[in-house]
Predict the 3D structure of the following.
Amino acid sequence: MRVAEAYRVAVTALRANGLRSALTMLGVVIGVASVVVLVAIGTGAKREVEQQVQGLGSNLIIVVPGRLEFGSAPTKSRLELGDADRLRRATGQEVAVSLASGETVRFGTRSAFATVNGTNAAVSRVFVRPVARGEYLRETDVDTRRRVAVIGPELVTSLFDGADPLGRTVSVGGVRFRVIGVFASVGSSVGGSRDSEVHIPITAAQRLFGDARVDAMALEAPTTEDIPQVRKQTLAVLADRYPDEEFSAVTQDQILGTVGRILGLLTTVLAAIAAISLLVGGVGVSNIMLVSVRERTREIGLRKAVGARQRDVLLQFLLEAVLLTSIGGLVGIALGIGGSLGLAAAIDQLPAVITWWSPVLAFGVSAAVGVFFGVVPARRAGRLDPVVALRSE
Amino acid sequence: MTPALEAIDVTRSYQLEDVRVDALRGVSLTIEHGDYVAVVGPSGSGKSTLMHLLGGLDRPTTGTLRVGGQDVAAMSQDQLAQVRNATIGFVFQSFQLLARTSAVDNVGMPLVYRGVRRAERRRCATEALERVGMGHRLAHRPSQLSGGEQQRVAIARALVGGPQVLLADEPTGNLDTRTGEEVMALLEALNDEQGVAVVLVTHDRDVAQRARRQVRVRDGLLEP
C-alpha cells in the first residue's frame, strides 16, 4: 500500500470522528504551545538581561566587597572615596563610585519611591548613561557636596506630569535637591526600572544616608585585552589596603556567564515541565488509537482478508496517530508563537523571543510522540487474526 | 491443470483454554476451476472452519492445503495475504462494506493492496460494478443502498481482482427470498459466463441444491 493511500484512509478515519480527533489533538496542542511559549519567555528574559549588561558599557570591571556568590549574604562595605583615588592612580583609569538607597522623592504634593544613587562624574564616562536634557553631575558638584540631582524619565512623568523639571527643586529623603538633568530612557527591565533612578553627588548621598562608605566601584579597561591586567591591579590595591577583607572584581563576561547559566537552567526547567504535558497528550493519542483499533476490528479483518499485509495495516494506523500529533503540533506552534507575541505585547516586562529551534523541536517531538504512542495500537491492529477480526461485532 | 483449491486430509484444532477442539478431523476436498460447490452442514459442524481454510484466512493444523496451486504451509502471513488477494474473492453474509465509503471505493479496495493507482482502481471498480448491474450506483454509500444492492457491491469487490474462486459464506442469509434469488442468479451467471469457481457455504437447502455438487460436513468430517 502506498503512503498516499494510507494517508487518505487515515484522513477519512480522523474526519469520521471529528470531535474525538480534535479533543485528542488538543492535548498535543497544549503541550506544544506551552513548550514554545515558555522557551520564548525564557530566551527573551535571557536576551534582555544580556542586552542590559552589555548596555551598561564596555570592558567594565565592577568592584564589590565580599565574594560574589549566589546565596551568600551581602558583605558590609568598608570601601571609601579615598579608595577610588587609589584605584585611579594604580590603574590610570577613571573610577565610578556608587552608594545607593531607596528613598522617597517629593515634588509639591506628589511623591515617588526611587533608587537614589550617590555617584561621581566618572559614571557618565565609565557607563553608558546618556542624559536627554540638562547635564550630568560634575567633579565640582561632588567636591563641594552640591545638592543637585539627575532624575530618570519616569520621575518626570510621575512627579512633574511631563513638565520640564530642570531648575526645579525636589525633596529627596527630606533634603532639597535641584534638578540639573534628566536621563534618556533605557527601558524597564526584569531587574526593575532604571528609568526611575535619581543620581546625586556621592558626597551629598553620604551625608543624606549618614554613611561614609562606598557600596561599589566600577572602572573601564581601555580594551578587552586589558581587562585581566586592570582587574589584577584593582585587586592588588584593595588587598594591600584591606588585608583581611575579600573583594570581587567582576567583569561583564562573568555576570553574563552567571546570569546566562541561571536563566538557561530556568528555561530548561520550564520547557521540561511543558514537555510533561506533551507526554500526557501523547498518552491520550495512544488511548484513542487503541479505541480506534478496537472499533474498526472488522474493517481490519476485511482489509486483511482481501490482501492487506501486516505492515499495510500498521502503516494505516501509525499514520493516523502521526497525523493527529503533527496537526496538533502545527496548531500548537501557531498558538505558541501567537501566545508568546501576545504576552510580550501585553506585559511590558515580559520579553519573548521565538528561536527557530523551539518550534522545529516541538514539531519534531510531537511527530515522534505520534510514532511512539501510535506504534503499540498499530502493531496490535497489524497482528489481528483476520478470522477472529471478521467475526467480531 | 492444477485445481483452484485443494485440501488433502486437513485437520484444524483449537486450544480453547484447557479444552482441545477438533473443528476439522481430516478433510479432503478439491475445487476445480469453474466448479460450483455448496458446502452444507449444521452449525458447529466445521463448515466455517473449512471455508476459512479454503479461503487462505487460516492454515490447517495438519494436512496439505493448496491455494491456487501453492502450499500455504510454507507461506508467511503476508505471503498468504497476497495469495488471497490474487486468488480468492470473498462474499460475506453481512456484506462487510466500509461505511462512509462509496461503492466504487469499496470495490476498488482490494486493488490498493496490489499497488494499483487510484485512477486505474476506479476504472476497474466501475467495470466490476457494471458487471453486477450496479453501474448506476458508483458514488452511493452502503447506507444509501438496499441489502441486495449492498451484496451486489460486495460481489463486485470480490470480482475486481479477477479471482479464480468466489467464496460465498451464506450470501443470501441477510436477504429476502426474492433478492436472495437475484444474488444467486448473479453468482451463477458469473460462474457460467466467466468460469469463476463458486464455493457456497449455506444451510439453506434450496440454495444448496442449485449447486453442481454438494459437500456435507458433519462433526469435522465430510459425509460420503
Q: What stands out?
A: Chain A has two domains: 3-52+263-391, 76-245.
